[in-house]
Amino acid sequence: MGDLEQWLIESPEMIDPGLKIVASQFSRWQSESASASERPDLLALSDSGELVVIELKRGSDRLIHLQALTYAAMSSSFTRVDLARAHAKWLSNSCGEPVSIEDSLSQLSAHVDGEWTDELLTVPRIILVAEDFPGQVITTVQWMATVAPNVGIECHEYHVFDDGEGDKYVSFQRLYPVDDLSDRTLKPSIAAAESVSHAISENKRGAKSVSIIHDEGLIPVDSRIDLSLESMVSPEIAKVVENWLDEDSSRRDVRWRTHRSRPLVWAEHDDPNLGWSPTKLRDEIFRRAGAPQRGFSAGDSWKFEGKSLYEIANSYR
Q1: CA separation (Å) from 279 to 24, 258, 264?
Q2: How high is the pLDDT of residue 200?
Q3: What is the pTM of this model?
Q4: Which residues, in sequence order, are CB contacts of 120 under 8 Å at separation 6+?
Q5: How far apart are CA 258 and CA 275, in angstroms?
Q6: CB of 272 within 8 A of CB of 176?
Q7: How far does CA 274 lie from the centroid of its chain?
Q8: Is the peptide bond before 177 cis (omega within 30 degrees of 0)?
Q9: Average pLDDT in the 157-173 region?
Q10: Alpha carbons 303 and 312: distance in angstroms, whole number
Q11: Which pLDDT tens digit goes with each residue over 93-141?
């Protein structure tokens, strides 16, 4: 188990390119009812701002999902500061040098693509990793997707290979759910959880659109990308942003580059080579224009030759 855990600590992108490991074997629960034996294998943060609980098992375990559900429930009370404190302690122990909570919080905030609030941590995603999944685990996970759609659970199968010379290799395959772009329609659920899921869903849609466009080369390098606010915000807010953009031609000069998460470069910025995600650049433009922030999908608002990034990615799929 140690090798598997270390592999994922060093390369979490093997199961999800948007993950940042926060801590391993976390046991510092504030609740008196929690014991030291309750240790999720890995806690991570996704680039969409959600907390991720990762449970690892060698072989096959028909109770893996029950343990992970317990850890997710316990973790759902985390705030950003709680998470930063856990990350700072883990980093300090790992590197042998003290890391402040402020530096840790800054690192975690920079990892999130979009606005990151404590509310986004209240519905953790669960990732189960095992060599094999019994039928009852898959059946339960599929059932939960129907009755509790806002609790995301994934099943990843792994296999370890030996090259005969002492070196080991590992491969991962996601068994459930099938990868797709996050849907626009949310199923009925508890209002608070639905609001959180909607915010996370919007962040995920933009990130997935960008990665598909990058991987398949759907937009040529140095192509002009335009910000379109029609139907995204009220006419009053759109006018504020449009007027600010029109004051200087460089403010509308946004180009596409080869990068899986931050493909936009903006001529207006002091560093014209700095890469931006669609969400981060949208937020920066609104901030500079003095317009109130709105949580619409950045993947829908940035367009290439009249088609949004979401439309380009979805048409390819």
Answers
A1: 29, 17, 10
A2: 55
A3: 0.67
A4: 48, 49, 50, 51, 196, 199, 200
A5: 10
A6: no
A7: 21
A8: yes
A9: 82
A10: 9
A11: 988 889 999 999 999 998 988 789 999 999 999 999 998 898 888 899 9
